[in-house]
Structure formats: structure tokens, C-alpha cells
């Protein structure tokens, strides 16, 4: 942790991993969830002290990357890239509640609290999942985006999900696709 006014390091910790990926913060418990992609695991730290609390080994998939937290229903959504799989974990225990296939090589995730929908862009498609039911995750739709398109961002306040589509060759341009969230 760094003081943003002075740049002084306040707290730091060593993480025994080679490859860290996105993190999620639970402000109600001060827990920080950290993707240990090279270990197929999630490490949980105390946000204030950066003391390691525990580590959860993921039950399916490899190279976990995108992560999102549902504070209201105590769920942690984790996407593994090998193969593309979305996992719903209990954010209190780490227990796997459900899982479902995603497009290949996913790089981002967006969880919309209002609709309880999850957006996962992967290689060439944007998958939209329903996470509102007690029966687990359910694929609502999958929309083609373009080769290599796997980076995106949810803009909840604008009811949009944006996907970056790289150029497949020097003969064409990269572009951005904007999807409207209905409901």
C-alpha cells in the first residue's frame, strides 16, 4: 500500500507466486482476493496488514485471470483461461457453487449487480451469463466480436459493455464494439 500523496510505501508483502492476475476487494470484510494464476489458486489477504489469511485451490481450470465479486450474495466469480471456464465460488468458504464454459482465452469479466448478469469476452465472442438463479450459472447469449477480441469493460452506470477488437491484419483497423445492456 502506498500513500498517494507522498509516494511512501506503507505496507508491503511478498507473494510466493510467479504470475499474479486481477484482484478483488471486499470492503465489508477488508479481504483482498488475489489471483495466483501460476498456481490455479486464489490467495486471500487482509487489506490493512497484507497478511495472508488463506489460499483456495481452484477445483477446475488453469491459469485463472479475470475476477469479480458479488458483495450482496457473497460470491466470487473467477475465470480460468485453460480451458475457458467461469466459476462461481462462495466468497466466504471458497466452495465451488457452479461452473460453465466461456469463450476461449478470456481476459476480462464484468458483473452487473443490478441484473446479476456476467459478461465474459473471449477469443471472438462476448458471452453473457445469468447468475440470478439458485440453480447456478446459465448462458443467456453469445455474440460474435472478432478474432482476438478478449478485452472488455462493463460500464454499469451507462448500461454498456465495451469490447476491444484488435486488427486481424495490417489491411484493417482495430475497433471497439459497444453493447447495450437491456433489463
Automatic annotation (TrEMBL):
SUPFAM superfamilies reported for this sequence: C-terminal (heme d1) domain of cytochrome cd1-nitrite reductase (SSF51004)
Matching InterPro entries: Haem_d1_sf, WD40/YVTN_repeat-like_dom_sf
Highest rank taxon of the organism: Bacteria
Protein name, as recorded: YncE family protein
Protein's organism: Acidicapsa dinghuensis
Lineage of origin: Bacteria, Pseudomonadati, Acidobacteriota, Terriglobia, Terriglobales
Amino acid at each position: 500500500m502506498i500513500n498517494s500523496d507522498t509516494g511512501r510505501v506503507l505496507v508491503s508483502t511478498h507473494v510466493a507466486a510467479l504470475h499474479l492476475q486481477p484482484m478483488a476487494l471486499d470492503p465489508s470484510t477488508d479481504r483482498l482476493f488475489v489471483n495466483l494464476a501460476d498456481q490455479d489458486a486464489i490467495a486471500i489477504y487482509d487489506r490493512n496488514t497484507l497478511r495472508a489469511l488463506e489460499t483456495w485451490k481452484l477445483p477446475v481450470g488453469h491459469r485463472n485471470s479475470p475476477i469479480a465479486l458479488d458483495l450482496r450474495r457473497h460470491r466470487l466469480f473467477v475465470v480460468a483461461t485453460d480451458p475457458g471456464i467461469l466459476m462461481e465460488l462462495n466468497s466466504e468458504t471458497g466452495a465451488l457453487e457452479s461452473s460453465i464454459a466461456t469463450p476461449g482465452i478470456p481476459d476480462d469479466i464484468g458483473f452487473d449487480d443490478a441484473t446479476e448478469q456476467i459478461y465474459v469476452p473471449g477469443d471472438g465472442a462476448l458471452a453473457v451469463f445469468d447468475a440470478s438463479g439458485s440453480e447456478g450459472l446459465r448462458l443467456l447469449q453469445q455474440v460474435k466480436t472478432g478474432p482476438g477480441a478478449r478485452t472488455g469493460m462493463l460500464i454499469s452506470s451507462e448500461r454498456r459493455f465495451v469490447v476491444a477488437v484488435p486488427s486481424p491484419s495490417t489491411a484493417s483497423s482495430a475497433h471497439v464494439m459497444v453493447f447495450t445492456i437491456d433489463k
